[in-house]
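Changelog note: in this version the structure field was regenerated for every chain. One regenerated record is shown below for reference.
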Amino acid sequence: MAGERTYTTREVAEMWNVSESTIKRWADTDNLNCFRTPGGHRRFRLEDILAFQKLRGFEATGLLSSELSEDPDLELWLNKKSFSKVQDLIFYLLKQNQRFKVVQLLDRLYLRGMSLEEIYDEVLVPLVHFVREQEVSGLLTLGQAHLIDQLIEEAVYSLFVQVVGKDRNGLTAMCGAPADQCRFFVNGVSRTAEIAGWDSLNLGQKVSFEEMATMVQNEPVDLICVISMPTPG
């Protein structure tokens, strides 16, 4: 895919704190998929790195030294899980309309072993609250806030579709919110349920309890996720 971020043998070795020869051996004999450049160099896609981590049951904890020139502290924040610093950086990038850089940041959080739930709860939900506060205080216009909301949605979707989901569990979850301004939260819960193996019925926001009850009567729903209007903190 044009423009897709890929990783070199050295970068994958740094992620996993192993030697480059180990990465090459895994790529040649042990289910670590890669492709070759015209010059014969191995390149690794994010989806293949994640699949191998899941297969072997370990996580990435090393530093990507090649990325440090962009921001000397970034990798330290990611490894220490300094969420407020990461949120500040993501907010800055979103204000600059840099969605693809935000996607890369979320990818790297996931590569560091953060679960989707942690990324959602510790990084993205506080960020959405912060955007609302900036809008209410007049530091962001309504248009700017809506644009940032949309960019967050797109970045989250890009991350979620790359994650290898679990096998279907044969059960159905229904997600919805009676209140307005809950779309991001409903979508996040719905996508998390899908990745966990559930079939998800995403009703969106501004859905009354009566409408939800009707859906439960008409559909084989095993889990109901009702999202109330979130409040900061």
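Spot check on this record: The mean pLDDT is 80. The radius of gyration is 20 Å.
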